[in-house]
Amino acid sequence: ILSIKHVDNVRHAEITGAENKRVTEFINYLYDINKPIWIRYVIIPGYTDSDKDIDSLINFLKPYGNIKLVEILPYHTLGEYKWENMKMDYPLKGIKPPSREKVIEIKNKIKSAGLPVNSD
Length: 120
Prior knowledge:
Blueprint: E1 2-3, H1 9-16, H2 21-32, E2 37-43, H3 51-61, E3 67-74, H4 80-85, H5 100-112
Parallel strand pairs: 1-2, 2-3
């Protein structure tokens, strides 16, 4: 299982605090050794859910023939309390989970591009 936060290097750094170079290198390594992989991608409204974001994800993943599943996960706020307990500012405070319809729309777009995607 490999989690991709964003395929755009700048956006990835905004979300995680680091560039996505290590993720890219790792997915290339797994492809080179023909290791089956499962991609996880979290839909965060305003961060990872635009048409451009999804098109970039699709274009990035399509060349890899070793992808067995693209698991689309809706963002949730279940871990927000951990940040509060540590007296830290939650960087995604105020972000609401995506609608079920938006998640289905994204899954359908990925599926129509020929990539295997999780069902509901």
